[in-house]
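Deliverable D4.2, example record:
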Amino acid sequence: MTAELVRGQNHPLPGTRLEVRVSAAQPVVAGATLSDDRRRVRGTSWVAHPGAPTLPGLEVSRQAAADHRLAVDLDALPDDAHQVNVLLALPVGVTGPASFGAVAAPFVAVTGLDGAEIASYTLTDLTAESAVVALELYRRQGAWKVRAVGQGYAGGLAEMLTDQGLPQAQDLAATINEAVAQGLARSVAAPPPRPADEARVRAAAQGHTAPGEVSPAPQGDPAVPHPVPPGPPAPGDGAPAQPGDGGPVNYTHPRRQTSAPPPPPPAVPTAAPGQPAQPVAGDATGWSLEERLYNQVWGMFEDLARTTAAYRSAVDFADSRREQELDKVLSDPRSRIGGAGDAARETARAKHGDLVDQARAALDRDLAQLAAEADVVEPALPPAFADWSSPVWHAYRAPMEIPMAVRLGGLHLPERPDLRIPMLVRLPLERGLWIDSGRSGTDSLADADTLRRLALDSAVAHAARLLAVYPPGEFTVHVIDPAGTGASALAPLVTSGVLDEPPAAGAAGTGAVLTRLTQRVDLLQMAVRGGVTSSLPPDLDTGEHLLVVNDFPHGFDDRAVTQLRYLADEGPAVGVHLMMVADREDAREYGPLLDPLWRALLRLTPVPDDHLADPWVGHAWTYEPPLAPTGSEVLPHVLAGVGTARRTGSR
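Output generated by the structure prediction step:
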């Protein structure tokens, strides 16, 4: 249960790998300082801020935003650092409120890597302050705790840093303000949220997560992109690029609406009176059947999460009640012997069984209804949402417009493994993918070579689906295979003609592809920031690009790693995405250098694995990769269709 702190209150931290989440109604600057055992900051190298966002064991956002996620690994902090201070400040030199008293109270929460809140604090009673120490994570007798601070400073960052004993406080405050101003100049406003999203936006502003959002369980995984319609971009994430002058660059969804969608069409009542209505595909709000199906799928996700949470809670209650009654029996010496004690114990067990049976009956009833709905919805899904086994893929034709989402696999819970909910992620992708080819975090019995092959097969399936759901010429895939170890798995992409060039191999080939894509990102960023996208070269392909990287980090030097990190951070905003096929354990040889890259990508697995969790109720969801059925020719068939459409430009 979350501890809701008040000013000065502390709470123990159960682990050392944490996130600090900040939600505010106004863009704020988030930073952190390290303090020694005398509560002093020893120098600028102990301050994490937008201009220098990473320290050992600590990473903060790179720009001002209304929402932030600060990553903290307390075990990785310097040995002489005894305290982490979480700082918030209002940006200076921009239009907006000058003090926290003019904005809604910011909300901060410390969470585990599974998204479960450990402690939260709402910073109330701020008036003229423009900077505030929100929380402190401190070490006491070998254990870590969090304390709600709420100490504000009317003099802003400079006064706050001076109070922490930093001699260079004025200069550092100026550096931070300059970095924030540059970040605000680079940022592009997100499209306005639809009314259906407003509840999620309001919940985010209050520090809550909307149902249906998925984030990783505690395995060091990066946060999973929200499979619900997006609101404002997350802190540090690139907002979708929008044309400033009617130019050709626009990576937002082309049919995103800003007014309320119509209600679902009325279902034909086919059930008997008193019985649940028969499920109907598309029975949700939305402007089109595609959008109604999308909303219905994530409504099913919410229903499954809710009903399973109710069942587990009921079982926990039954277990607790049984234990209390048995303890009561054992605490009475008169009931320890003889028939009275046996009868009391049998009664407690019978009550427990009745409660569990009632909970299971309710669960089975709800699961049966959801299974019936899934049986109706799955065959009605369009290709972008459908499983590879769906007949819609056998009649594949290149689409004329970009869909609103794409299927990246399936999700299920152990209470009903056969009830799988499609994992839909909005397009364009807001972040890249990490296909884990190692054994970390998985219970698979497959050997290392098999896992690597399955990971690359999964990457090919993901790339094929993305190519298939985009109109011809609007999505390009590049492949880097430094040692050529993935030639056989990559053959479907090569032989079908969907690649503009063969997979790049060797240091020279790898460097050429990375340089070309980073230059593309630089060019498009400059055009978008300057509002001159119409002046881009007429022969520039403004479609989206995906870079598939196999067997990382083998064959990559420091320059290549830096370029990959740059593409992961800046690429999605201008339509350049990463798909890494890599073993997390192999990547550890680079140390903390690759941690930001790891966190920036959505981790998927090539075998079923319960590494995803929703912060709404905390379930560990088992992820199923979207591989084609064994022996099926659907993947070569679809890729052949994509290749033909790309060559002829036909749909």
